[in-house]
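2 proteins. here.
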Amino acid sequence: MNEETKFSVLCSLFNWMQRSKTSALKRSKFRKFLDNFCKPTDYFNAIRLLLPSLDRERETPTTLFASSIGAKAAPRPVPMPGNFALVAAEVLQRRQGISSGGLTVKELNDFLDRLASGENRAEKTSILSTLVQKTNAQEMKWIVMIILKDLKLGISEKSIFHEFHPDAEDLFNVTCDLKLVCEKLRDRSQRHKRQDIEVGKAVRPQLAMRVGDATGAWKKFHGKEVIVECKFDGDRIQIHKNGTEVHYFSRNFLDHSEYGHAMSAIIVQNVQADRCILDGEMLVWDTSLKRFAEFGSNQE
């Protein structure tokens, strides 16, 4: 991507895609953006802003925004991400002009990297305040939605991946690494050899097909016998065991090494396979009550 490409150009793409009615038009506009504004050597800077939910290195609590934009905390539940972005834009509209501050895509990514690596609340709030000064309300609305990982563009990540490269989704599913996908698949005309799953690297589990209700699911069995088991409600964790090395990947592809102290030795001793991937729910067992603890106890 040209280092001088303005974030306002990407905002125009977001606005156009949000207003457009058909997926085909959205995909076409996205492709034109890649061809006109992005260099093959640096697709990642743009793609990570279009697919923020797949960027595992960035996470910022919503509560930081109130102090950074000068909004007082309201005595009610925090609104959903999309609504919060609109509220933030409304507050900022009264404090910012309508003209853009000239923020580039590269500068925004640098700001967001600093925000993600900030060591304390004051540092993160200062970074957000600087962003407010360099943008208008419309641009800041989209930045808020990027940080909250919820753009609401009406286009699936599957469509974005396919328009970028026919093999992009498959490669991401076995690597969960957006930067790697952007670097390996620079040439859309060149197909990528299917990559195997690697123990020690997060992989996307295949999900069951969604149906409307239990009746619809039952019809799919056509009268065949089924086995029903209790669904435990814990933290979805993907355990990778490679000899004595154990990783704990969340559904957001983060490696929760904090589980290692209590769990790794048990897994190494009891899982006979030398190399394997286990996908399931991580629960806490209450030794006093002799039952599983409530959902969320893993974080306590």
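next one coming up
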Amino acid sequence: MGEIEEPNITELVDRIGRIPLCTDDDYDFQKLEILDEMYRKSYEIFNEMRSKCQLCDVALVVESRKLSAHKVILAATIPYFRGMFTLDMMEASMKEIKIEDMNYETVDALLSFAYTGELRISTSNVQSIMLGANFFQMQEVVQHCGDFLITRLHPSNALSIRDFCKLMNVDRNVTNKTEDFIQKHFTSVAKDEDFKKLSLEDTVILLDSDNLYVDSEEQIFNAAMEWLKYDKTRHQDAAKILLCVRLPLLSPTFLSSAVATNSIIKKDIPCRDLIDEAKDYHLLPERRQFLKSFKCCPRACQRIPGLIVAIGGLMHQSQSKSSVEIYNPIQKKWSSIEGVTTLRTRVGVAVHKRQVYAIGGFNGQDRMDLVEKFDYDTLNWVKLSPLNRKRSALAAAFVSNRLYVCGGYDGNHSLSTMEIYDINKNIWEPGPPMENQRSAAGVTVLGKHIYVCGGHDGMQIFGSVERLDTESQQWERIPSMIQQRCRFGAATYKGKIYVAGGYDGTSFLKSVEVYDPIEKEWAPCSAMNMRRSRVSLVATNEGLFAVAGFDGENNLCSMEQYDETTDQWTISTPLTCHEGGVGVGVIPMPPHML
């Protein structure tokens, strides 16, 4: 047999002609998705060629050692070299380019990343890699290094990591996370040497933050003094530092025994003036509105999770209850702790630091004047001075170191009166009465104001709202809610006031409203999943929680959580032994203690 001739491709194509397909639509196509694999294989070959110095046209000289490369690859993967080689810079025609102020290992690692897309980041090389990537304008690498540092945050390095990330122009999300960590672990961070080395400007910004997690303002003062003592030249700035401490939140005893006697402060006239003003805040309440030097609101700790504590309420047989439950938002679990000494429901609850106050209430027969305090650190309840007047369904809230109780029901009448508790003296004093008698109202705090919303006077249910300026001790009206309601929950979250559930005289409600203090108007939110009268509403870092209540037929043990970003309520973990109208508060707690 003779040899078989190979077919002529052109002749074959001509013979076949155009293949008839089912459509002439040029937009009917399938995309060949092999680019990622093709690029990967191509760059593997490029890297192999680099290692063998094949077709390389440039060398990077680092610490007297050379790294061969291809200009086109460098220009495609490293912005620094793209500018160098495409903008007619002197180096564009050079065969060797010297890289200063970087070690060989760093440049080698970044060059390998440019060819392979792989980079090993470790605690030993992350800073040098980050510096090199920043120099070469490899922002993606800089960002990954910043993300790596976030996973290694510790009180001993948090300030350094924050400052380094800012220097490297890392994405704001990374620096925000370092700021959050510093705020949450402030007491530990303040003990580190890096804190003492902060500039005056950075120290003022940190100490002035609303979101520092501290047990008391005394910890802020002590940290401020440690910073001042570190360098004698800082003493001239003592007043600037002392202004960051919210002196009115310190007890009069601490002001006199620790602040006024401090060796740095007592030598500084502006500091002594600030102390006198803080003392006036305690001694002359009527002048508080004129004392403008200090912030007087407690540190907000807005991003700190909290333990939700539920007190009183009802048992399954609708009897008053004495047990107490605590909800851990990290574990999403309720657990029981030491109960109050007496059965009660419709109790007022307020939290100061890590101490929970249970005020008044109803034991199934009588309204109560009993006041108890639970210390989370010792897990003990202590009885305090009783109210001047028995009351249930009352409003209770802390502002600074003072507990305000207003309204409620004494067994005969709804009340407009207010009582103020001094935690240092353990005594109750009368406060300015509200304009309306209000029982079963919603209460919350925003800044220096206590907001009391809705409620009833035994004859009618209110939609009106009044607020107390705790500095001037004056009540004022603000816009009414969209819907009148009593026996509902109220809470402050992200600078706005939310009200949820309740009873309007004919219906048990699941509707929710939010008040914007800047716009001075109420707006509806998504309704809860269930109707809830006698519901408690609290805010934590995780969102808003509506706890227990009554739906018109049954006492509820369920809980719902609100996400304001989606405007949605979801059913959350139910209480284990409570129903009905529990009193609820939030104990601030750092994440590592949950």
